[in-house]
Design brief:
This protein has helices at residues 11-14, 27-50, 78-83, 85-101, 139-153, 163-173, 191-198, 200-217, 241-260, 283-298, 301-319, 324-341, 346-358, 368-372, 379-386, 388-396, 403-410, 432-446, 458-468, 475-487, 489-493, and strands spanning 54-58, 64-66, 103-112, 115-125, 131-137, 181-188, 222-226, 231-237, 269-276. It has 496 residues and is α+β, with helices and mostly antiparallel strands.
């Protein structure tokens, strides 16, 4: 046995750099390089196994094998990929393309645990004619893209399709041959009036309501989009002209039934429509025709819409009272008594009766939860409540027949001593009608239960009025009405 065979198989002996080697002078340098290569290999292995991507190698035998050992773990997607014939065929095709073009990219999907996984594969050719395959799970990106695309096409308020999507749909239909198609353009009449008087939030609530109504009426095979501030568009395929006309009439009946219901919020929706019978579709012409129809129906609708909503607002406010009929009766008697005591003209008496019904109309623009809150209102909530006088004034100014009382509504929470709102007017600077309603409103409020307190007895009510005279209330008006209240305590008991 030779001397060399008795040596241990160390790194030195294997590479021929033992003590007796004539290459002894190169030993330190080579050792450093080998050590560096081993460190580099260790780093590469660590990096590869730390990657979220799945790595394969396509070798010279045209076989695809795992490249990163960590990805062989049970939860890894590597197993479903290896087990999926179609996926492996995709990888093989991509690798062959990379051999020709140096690099290549594909996307594909596979089913894993009853869910669809979206994958991206990148192929890079090596100097030894192998291909490194990097597979990445892009499911989150795909879903995000879907969500983004959906958001781009959705109206954020109504959650229906938007004008961008509708225009793309029109382009799809343009110059397409079809037998039958209908286009409806629907408009929330008076929506600008609601926005101007009650604000953006209230108008958005009406938009949502209108979208829900339109969606519930039209058949399932329709395409619905919100195309402007107050307008919606509906495209219906495979519908005859007779069916379209019947649908239009049914919509009128449907809306009348909705608005006559006491349990729903009212909204006024006008419409126009156009029908395509045969041949190539001209969506632009259909759109113009439907809009022309709509315009004719809305020419006289704006004033009607204002009165429609005002009636609805009054009804809504009155319904909030626990006994609205008793409340109305109480206000009527008190107005008549003040009118008698002050010897008001028939005109002023009429205006005062109007005022007694409409002074809190601005509450329609306030959030509902504030009225139901039993706890003490925050300063922010109180500032919102105080805005109802200005909302009411702005609302009534829109109506010629109510312009005369709009100012009285604005000032009906001003106090005699200047501590009221919105402007802190005091004494005779406050209109007489506002001072009268200030007292009537307090009597009605104290005489019935509220979410945050119980009603008070008649005697206590009279004491509160006396206490407030010269502060909240005009002392002269309080002195005038107190004898009447003292003699008519039963009225207060049944007030609401």
């Amino acid at each position: 046995m030779s001397k060399s065979l008795n040596k241990n198989y160390t790194r030195d002996s294997i590479i021929g750099l033992g003590e007796e080697s004539f290459k002894k002078n190169y030993y330190p340098e080579l050792l450093r390089k080998i050590t560096k290569l081993e460190q580099l290999q260790n780093r590469n292995d660590t990096l590869i196994n730390a990657m979220r991507d799945i790595l394969f190698i396509y070798d010279e035998k045209a076989e695809i094998k795992p490249f990163s050992t960590r990805r062989l773990e049970p939860h890894s997607l590597m197993h479903p990929i290896l087990a999926n014939a179609e996926a492996m065929e995709n990888l093989k095709m991509g690798a062959e393309q990379a051999l020709k073009h140096a690099s290549y990219e594909i996307t594909f999907s596979l089913e894993d645990k009853e869910k669809i996984v979206h994958l991206e594969a990148r192929f890079n050719k090596t100097q030894s004619d192998e291909v490194i395959i990097i597979v990445r799970d892009i499911s989150d990106i795909v879903e995000l893209q879907k969500t983004h695309s959906s958001l781009l096409n959705l109206d954020p308020i109504s959650k229906l399709y938007n004008r961008r999507w509708f225009d793309s749909k029109i382009n799809e239909f343009t110059k397409v041959t079809a037998k039958h198609m209908a286009l409806f353009i629907l408009e929330v009449t008076g929506l600008q009036f609601i926005k101007t008087t009650l604000g953006q939030i209230h108008s958005e609530q009406v938009i949502v309501l209108a979208g829900e109504i339109i969606s519930s009426f039209f058949p399932e095979n329709t395409t619905i989009a919100r195309i402007s501030f107050e307008s919606f568009a509906v495209i219906i395929e495979d519908i005859s002209e007779m069916e379209t006309e019947a649908l239009a009439k049914n919509f009128e009946t449907f809306m009348a039934k909705h608005n006559n219901s006491t349990n729903t919020k009212n909204v006024l929706i006008s419409y126009g429509y156009a029908h395509h019978s045969e041949g190539i579709i001209n969506m632009e012409t259909m759109f113009v025709n439907a809009n022309s129809f709509l315009h004719l129906s809305t020419l006289t609708q704006y004033e009607r819409a204002k009165h429609f909503y005002l009636t609805h607002f009054v009804k809504t406010i009155e319904q909030k009272a626990s006994n609205r009929e008793a409340s109305k009766h109480c206000k009527k008697i008190l107005v008549n008594e003040f009118s008698r005591l002050l010897n008001l003209t028939s005109y002023k008496r009429k205006k005062l009766h109007q005022l007694s019904r409409l002074y809190d109309i601005g509450e329609i623009g306030l959030p509902e939860h504030i009225f139901q809150k039993k706890e003490t209102l925050s300063e922010m909530e109180w500032s919102i409540v105080r805005s109802h006088t200005m909302i009411g004034e702005k609302l009534l100014t829109e109506f010629p027949e109510y312009k005369g009382i709009a100012n009285f509504v604005l000032y009906h929470h001003e106090n005699w001593d200047g501590s009221g709102y919105p402007y802190g007017l005091f004494k005779e600077a406050i209109p007489l009608e506002s001072r009268i309603i200030r007292i009537i409103d307090s009597i009605v409020a104290m005489a019935h239960d509220l979410p945050y307190r119980k009603k008070i007895a008649c005697e206590q009510l009279i004491k509160e009025l006396k206490k407030g005279a010269g502060k909240e209330y005009d002392p002269n008006l309080v002195s005038l009405i107190l004898p009447f209240l003292d003699k008519n305590k039963e009225l207060i008991k049944t007030c609401p």
